[in-house]
Every structure is written in structure tokens, then in C-alpha cells.
Specification:
31% strand; 167 residues; single chain; 32% helix; alpha/beta; UDP-N-acetylmuramoyl-L-alanine:D-glutamate ligase; 9 strands; 5-stranded parallel β-sheet
Length: 167
């Protein structure tokens, strides 16, 4: 079974349900990772969460889905990002984000990152998205691209999901 590692940002998600709110989780790479794990692929997620009850709940939910969370690191002073979705009467969704100081933005500053990078370098497939690159500071982007080169140099594949271009 090929080993798949996704790198990205997962956040707490608030969805408006009637007069209240429902708490969940989401993120482009997280959603992909969960679907791959459900399909039976050996899938790990490389990202950072905070050290709080919400983050512990996310890890537990993801393990229940079959996702390997051994590469989910804990940032000692940052929190997990949050976004809220409001759907208008036409069904159009709008998003509000609270992620400027999220743990995921400081992934490459987390304790344990060197060991996590070494494990991720052994992946058969490493995948990340444009959002992953956008949230990382320049040094983090360079580290992620270096990790991708390590995967490719040892014969693995790298997948990148960017925004489609429109003519």
C-alpha cells in the first residue's frame, strides 16, 4: 500500500444551522486526506494544531476516520485556525477567517518538525495545495519545497493543487 502524506492547514469550522452554529472541521488538504484514508490508503497528515481541547478533539476525529495523525504537531503557543460559513438565501456561501496566528502557519517552527519531515520524506506521494503555500512564511515555503524535492529525489511523487487559471 503506498504511503500518502498531505501537508496543509485544517481549521475549526462553524456552520450556521438555523438559529445556531455547528462546530466541525475542514480544509482542502484535510478533506483530501480523510477521503484517501476512507478509501483505504495509508494516509498521514502533516500540520500543526494548538495545545487545547479543540485540537485534541480534531486529532481524535481524524483518527476515527483512519487518518494517521502521527505527523500532526503541536505548537506550544498558537491556536488552531477558525472559520465560519454563512449561506445566503440563494445558497451562496461566504467565509470569515480567524487564522492570522494559527499553529499551521508556524508548522516548521514546531517541536518535532525535523523528525516529521524525515518521516514525510519517505512518502510515496506527498501532496499540498496553493493554500498550504500561501499560509506559510517564506522560510516555511522553502522547507516544504525542499521536502517535496526529497520525496521526488527518492522516486516518490508530488502532487500540487493550485487554483485553476481562467482565460
Amino acid at each position: 500500500m503506498p504511503r500518502v502524506v498531505l501537508v496543509g492547514e485544517a481549521m475549526l469550522e462553524l456552520r450556521r444551522i438555523g438559529d445556531g452554529w455547528q462546530l466541525g472541521h475542514g480544509g482542502d488538504t484535510l478533506n483530501t486526506a480523510i477521503h484517501l484514508a476512507r478509501a483505504g490508503f495509508d494516509t498521514a497528515y502533516l500540520m500543526a494544531l494548538g495545545d487545547d481541547g479543540f485540537s485534541a478533539g480534531l486529532r481524535a476525529d481524524w483518527r476515527t476516520e483512519g487518518l494517521d495523525t502521527s505527523l500532526v504537531l503541536t505548537h506550544p503557543s498558537r491556536q488552531t485556525g477558525l472559520y465560519a460559513i454563512i449561506t445566503d438565501v440563494r445558497g451562496e456561501r461566504s467565509f470569515t477567517y480567524w487564522r492570522d496566528s494559527s499553529a499551521a502557519r508556524a508548522l516548521f517552527d514546531c517541536p518535532g518538525i525535523a523528525a516529521a519531515e524525515a518521516q514525510a520524506a519517505g512518502a510515496d506521494l506527498l501532496a499540498f495545495s496553493l493554500i498550504t503555500l500561501a499560509i506559510l512564511p517564506p522560510e516555511g515555503r522553502q522547507r516544504l519545497l525542499a521536502l517535496a524535492r526529497r520525496v521526488r529525489d527518492r522516486g516518490g511523487l508530488v502532487a500540487f493543487a493550485g487554483r485553476p487559471c481562467r482565460p
